């Protein structure tokens, strides 16, 4: 079951995705993003150390690192 979040502003459901990206220096990072429909790279759970927040003006979900 994919991890999904419902927008408080619009009521639309967004699904969490992750994609590996190689940077110019050769370092590999994971990019996390929300999409309106399931695509390649769907994640089943939130990554450890992250939390979901919502942009107040647009209602789009955002993934943020939890600060210690």
Kindly describe this structure.
The chain has 68 residues and is mostly beta strands. The chain has one domain. Helix content is 0%, strand content 46%. It is built from no helices and 5 strands. The chain has strands at residues 4-6, 13-22, 28-35, 50-54, 61-65. A 3-stranded antiparallel sheet has the order 1-2-3, with no helix packed on it. Strands 4-5 form a two-stranded antiparallel sheet. It starts with a strand and ends with a strand. The model has no long low-confidence stretch (mean pLDDT 94).
Describe the secondary-structure layout.
Elements: E1 4-6, E2 13-22, E3 28-35, E4 50-54, E5 61-65
Antiparallel strand pairs: 1-2, 2-3, 4-5
Concise description?
This protein is an all-beta fold and 68 residues long. The protein contains no helices and 5 strands.
Give keywords.
three-stranded antiparallel beta sheet, globular, mainly beta, 68 residues
End-to-end Cα distance: 29 Å
| C-alpha geometry | globular
Number of strands: 5
Instruction: Name the poorly predicted regions.
Output: none
* Proportion of beta-strand residues: over 45%
Give me the number of helical elements: 0
Indicate the percent of residues in helices: under 10%
- Counting helices, strands and paired strands, the structural category is mainly beta
Largest sheet: spatial strand order: 1-2-3
Report the major sheet: 3 strands, antiparallel
Task: Compute the average pLDDT.
Answer: 94
N-to-C series of helices and strands: EEEEE
Q: Number of domains in the coordinates?
A: 1
- What Rg do the Cα atoms give? 13 Å
């Amino acid at each position: 079951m994919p991890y999904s979040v419902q927008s408080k502003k619009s009521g639309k459901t967004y699904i969490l995705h992750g994609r590996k990206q190689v940077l110019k220096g050769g370092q590999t990072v994971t990019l996390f993003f929300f999409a309106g429909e399931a695509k390649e790279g769907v994640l089943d759970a939130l990554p450890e150390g992250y939390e979901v927040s919502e942009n107040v003006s647009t209602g789009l979900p955002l993934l943020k690192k939890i600060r210690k």
